[in-house]
Amino acid sequence: MKAIYTVLAAAVALACVAPSFAQASKAPAFIGPAVGISLMSSKNALSFEPAASGTFESTDSAADLVGSYGFDLGPQWVGTAGLAFGLKTTSFGSLTSGAITSSAVGKQHVTLSFAPGMRVGSDGLVYGKLALHQLSVNYTSTSGFDETKTHQGTGFGLGYAMALNPQMELRGEFESVSYNGETTGTTKAIPKQTTFGVAVLYKF
């Protein structure tokens, strides 16, 4: 939780200093601060060690509040530092064994990322993405088991951004995220997510 509060504090700081960048809208596309919303389809899965008799899988929607800052890396290159905070829980599915049904739900998802990109014309940007993720997963069962574990993960993605006008940016992005395992009950649970999302951002 301490890491989440630190990230949120950084987001508040970004919001406080954003007015000082009032002239950023005159900068080239993708340069300067921006905030927006990302909507995603997320394929979620859980594997276990030792292997369980079944797997948890689910496809669910996800939504993030996104903040980013783009800066020049060269004549055709842009680097973008990003911060995202999940706005809703996401299901990792459920599994029934005998009379007991177990389920898992992800929440409090925070992402820090860096995305180097290459300009395509004056209004396009193709980029790769490296991200650090933190996700809390609540594991429950009808037997009364209820435990929450925080997983750290690394994500790799590809995306395309388009400057709709000097203030608006549209992004489409694919990302695969692998998390570390945490022991819950008698097994180690290892989450994985594959997402495809579309984001709309306002540039200051």
Brief characterization of the structure:
The protein is mainly beta and 204 residues long.
What are the SSEs and their pairings?
Blueprint (H helix, E strand, L loop, with lengths): L1 H16 L14 E18 L6 E19 L2 E10 L3 E8 L2 E21 L3 E18 L4 E18 L4 E12 L2 E3 L2 E17 L1
Antiparallel strand pairs: 1-2, 1-10, 2-3, 3-5, 4-5, 5-6, 6-7, 7-8, 8-10, 9-10
Structure characterization notes:
This protein is mainly beta and 204 residues long. Helix content is 8%, strand content 71%. It contains 1 helix and 10 strands. It has an 8-stranded antiparallel barrel with strand order 1-2-3-5-6-7-8-10. It is elongated and about 60 Å long.
Radius of gyration: 19 Å
Helix content: under 10%
> What series of H and E elements makes up the topology?
HEEEEEEEEEE
Structural class: mainly beta
Number of helices: 1
Biggest beta sheet attributes:
8 strands, antiparallel, barrel
Strand % is over 45%
DSSP strand tally: 10
* Mean pLDDT value: 88
Give the termini distance in whole angstroms.
30 Å
What are the segments in which pLDDT stays under 50 over at least 5 consecutive residues?
Answer: 1-25
Shape category: elongated
Strand order, sheet with most strands? 1-2-3-5-6-7-8-10
